[in-house]
Amino acid sequence: MNCKKCGSPGNVILRKKDSYCENCFITNTNHKFRACIGKNKVLRANDNVLVCLSGGIGSTVLLDFIHNGISMDSHKKLRIIPFFLHVKESEDASGSQAVKVIEQCRKLNFDVHIINISLFIESGTEPTSLNNIPQLNNETSDKFKRFLKSMPATVRNDLLLKIKRHLFTKYAKHLNCNYILTAETTTTLAINLLSNLALGRGSQIQNEVGFYDARDDNIKVLRPMKEISQEELTLYIKIKNLSPEHNSLLNDNSLQSVIGTFVTDLQENFPATISTICKTADKIGIKVDSKKQGKCVICENELGVVTSKLTALSATKFSRTVSNGRPENVDNFNSVIHLYDIKDNVNQSLFPHIHSCLCYGCSKNYSEMEISQMPNHVQKLFENK
Ligand SMILES: [Zn+2]
Ligand SMILES: [Zn+2]
């Protein structure tokens, strides 16, 4: 088959039907990335942008896109000033992931700032290490590990995403960047979408998996890889001979890892699975409430508002209250009026700090953490409320 664009022999087949030559495929994919940024009209010329790299597939291709974009010499040039950041995870004990990112950046003559994720434990902003893995303070990293160990794997996976976002934002401020680019692939976003729904974060989906995360008032997180399919990424890596570091940082035996297996297995036989999930995400909007109550101190999403309608939270509370009640009281729960009473009377022992400084998802997480292991600066956030 010949290339759809230029008519020369095509050896790249997309979606089992569209044929391209390698040149047109690479040009097209780069164009798709720039078009995604362009059509969303968020970035302006010469904005400082923090690009967060994990070293995985999406991150490797994003780095290549940025290099191509800023090296262009035409009106299509990507006019941003990129800064690169890698957060070294505690699972990456050997540092192989960090070494990979340093190597990928060095090949393109970019500098990369590296920080350890365990810095979350500290309240200040430690300096980053340029093109080097920073020395790890054992006490800090042990404290961080103990904190993570104190919670179930599902809570840990959920919290790690919030921690990384917190560090990205903190270092964006530090490096004078108003924008952050992250490289989640459609597959990651599909898994995050379903996990967020299951964790009771339905109202936060736009911020968690949309193109644009507007939680912080000054610093916006953009996800420019969200329209590039896994198939395109894999072909791109192969043709350009790039070498990503493959590894999943999801903790096993968790809700997210089960959803991950479910989505990728289904995708094998039903190639439209992931794109369908992601398209559904775009249709779920955030209900903007004029009576804003403030932000959750952990995830920075809007705190849930007490609406006149019954919510899943009211149902959970009702069910728990009924289950805990004495049998002779059961008749009293027959009336809907009592359901409303329970809804308004938030039980702080079931959902600590809910609506005062934590959203539903973070309150549920908080109830499963060992508070004594929590970093001091996070504990203080609750005292001030
Ligand atoms: Zn062609
Ligand atoms: Zn929250």
Number of E-type strands: 9
The CATH topology of the largest domain corresponds to: Rossmann fold
CATH architecture of the largest domain: 3-Layer(aba) Sandwich
| Shape by Cα distribution | globular
Q: Output the CATH class name of the largest domain.
A: Alpha Beta
* Count of separate structural domains: 2
Main β-sheet, spatial strand arrangement = 6-5-4-3-7-9-8
How is the main sheet built? 7 strands, mixed
Family: Belongs to the CTU2/NCS2 family.
Domain tRNA(Ile)-lysidine/2-thiocytidine synthase N-terminal: 49-243
Pathway: tRNA modification; 5-methoxycarbonylmethyl-2-thiouridine-tRNA biosynthesis
Keywords: Cytoplasm, tRNA processing
Walkthrough of the structure:
Pathway: tRNA modification; 5-methoxycarbonylmethyl-2-thiouridine-tRNA biosynthesis. This is Cytoplasmic tRNA 2-thiolation protein 2. Residues 49-243 form the tRNA(Ile)-lysidine/2-thiocytidine synthase N-terminal domain. The chain is 44% helix and 9% strand. The protein is of the alpha/beta class and 385 residues long. It has two domains: 12-283, Rossmann fold (3-Layer(aba) Sandwich), CATH 3.40.50.620; 312-383, no CATH class. A seven-stranded mixed β-sheet has the order 6-5-4-3-7-9-8, with helices on both faces. Strands 1-2 form a two-stranded antiparallel sheet. Helix 2 (57-71) packs across helix 8 (230-239), helix 6 crosses helix 9 (255-269) and helix 11 packs across helix 12. It starts with 11 loop residues before the first strand and ends with a helix. The structure holds zinc ion (2 copies).
